Amino acid sequence: MNTVYLVANGDLRLSANQKCEAAQAAMEKALVGAIQREGFNVKRAHPFDEAKGHGFIDCQKMGLRVFKSIPQDAPLIVAEAVWQYSQNVLGGLISHNGPILTAANWSGTWPGLVGLLNLNGSLTKAGVKYGTLWSEDFKDKFFTKKLRQWLQTGKVKHDTSQVVKFKDVKIPASARKHGEKIAQRFVSAKAIMGVFDEGCMGMYNAIIPDELLHPFGVYKERLSQSTLYAKMLTVSDEEARRIYDWLVSRGVKFQFGPNEETDLTEHQVLQQCKMYVAALRLADEFGCATIGIQYQQGLKDLAPASDLIEGLLNNVDRPPVYHEETGRELFPGEALPHFNEVDECAGLDGLVTSRVWLELGYAPETTLHDLRWGRHFKNSRIDAYVWVFLISGGAPPAHFIDGYGGTSSERQPPMYFRLGGGTCKGISKPGWVVWSRVYVSGGELHFDTGLAEVVHLPSEETNERWQLTTPQWPIMHAVLQGITRDQMMAQHKSNHIQVAYGPDRPGARLALFTKAAVMHELGLKVHFCGDI
After folding, report:
1. Alpha carbon of 7 to those of 27, 100, 486: distances in Å?
2. Beta strands per DSSP E along 226-327
3. CATH number of the CATH domain containing 45
């Protein structure tokens, strides 16, 4: 009987791996059953670790050791039911010669599909050939047919007919000319991208090589999160209180509790206010046009989470911050685009978006979200597949229904953030957005983009979606135009997706074409996706 090897990649954090072990085991049981029904045997390449209480590959060192035991030409499946750190397995996958399949569950609660998309983007950047599959129960016709295809040929073919190259689309002449001029000004103006520790959570796909950025006039300023923490220590309690009072006066609802270990507290939020001031002062000091904070590792052991800060930075209307010596207001009347989880692809995308939207006279607030999960929804107004776009930090209050009045802040889960800290939570307002993703493939930068309608769902459906995912985080209900669930999964090269609102559908369409023209003029390989 032919043998397929299986590995399970996990988190660096012990608590996360332990909590997710049961979900991973259930997913693997269903996946192995599907493979065995096709007449193949499955060999798990690493055992359950009794001492650790989980069976995940949990670091790069372990990953390299595990891959030494796998025959180089053997068919290999990376089974993902949870978030994973791609660095743990990337070294082994790069040097593996046999066919590779990445496979994930379809669940909001256990975000294997989010981990899979990150790993797929990392493999794409690394030039590794792979197939990819996803399923709710590993018994559906789509999954079974594609699995059989991979087992027999080592390849999986998906429908990506929604993808059209830039040269094959008739761009309105005005949008093309405007985009070309914006691109020329963008390059000549030059910009500094502030990077607070590179490579968050093993997201190799989120790192843009410097030489690919330089032709755009964008240069990295590599900063340390310890610098951010040190700057926080120079911010006075009075300054932090002033930021907090400003937010309360605008209607932000902080969900406080008495227990520092499990609840959000005023102390945590005041520390976040200090981080907000520190981030703006460092951006001003180093001349940064955009910044990204890693936050998941290192900083989380020193300070509360940066999520609240990130949402505020991406908002034009935000608490004023002043230079500590001259008293000059920093970035007055401007958003300082922040790329969550120091995703540099989103950083470049967000910076270009901000410039294009300002040129068009549109509200420039932009953010990335996780392409988290989705399901079909139907009522008297909607009959569509509605995605859950969700992110821990970065979503600006301008995107929410009722703005700051519709913004709440809840404690980040203790499993990930021992020192707490609040999020910037809200429900994204109905309207039209341009979505996009910058990614690296074949040593070049690519750009996928399309339109989505943000819809209003009944509160019961919204709350259920929150409870099935992460209820502390901001949510966007998105209907991608002209793209099925499986087409999106087959093409998208990241767990992240960038979004920005147009004033209406025609306005969003104009922004889509103008921004695409900018990216094309800058030298990115542009692909339109779906109905534009």
Report:
1. 12, 11, 24
2. 253-254, 288-293
3. 3.40.50.10940
Q: Are residues 208 and 133 in the same domain?
A: no
pLDDT in tens, 203-262: 999 999 999 999 999 999 999 999 999 999 999 999 999 999 999 999 999 999 999 999
Angle between helices 173-189 and 505-522 (to 10 degrees): 50
Domain boundary among 122, 153, 184: 153
- Do 497 and 435 lie in one domain? The reply is yes
- The CATH number given to whatever domain includes residue 231 is 3.20.14.10
Provide the 8-state DSSP code for 11.
-
Mean pLDDT over all residues of the chain?
97
- Write the single-letter amino acid at 322: Y
| Per-residue tokens: 208 | 């843009």
Structure tokens at 481: 């135009």
Helix (H) or strand (E) holding 516: helix 505-522
Residue type (1 letter), 327? G
CA distance 387 to 409: 23
> Cα–Cα distance between 454 and 479 in angstroms, integer?
6
Are 462 and 477 contacting, i.e. CB atoms less than 8 angstroms apart? yes
In this structure, are residues 517 and 180 in contact, taking their beta carbons and an 8 Å threshold?
A: yes
pTM: 0.97
Task: Print the domain residue range for 123.
Answer: 3-153
Return the pLDDT at 13: 87
8 and 129 inside one domain: yes
Residue recorded with tokens 């989470």: 305
Mean pLDDT value of segment 460-487: 98
Angle, helices 505-522 vs 344-360, to 10°: value is 120
Torsions phi, psi of 89, nearest 5? -120, -10
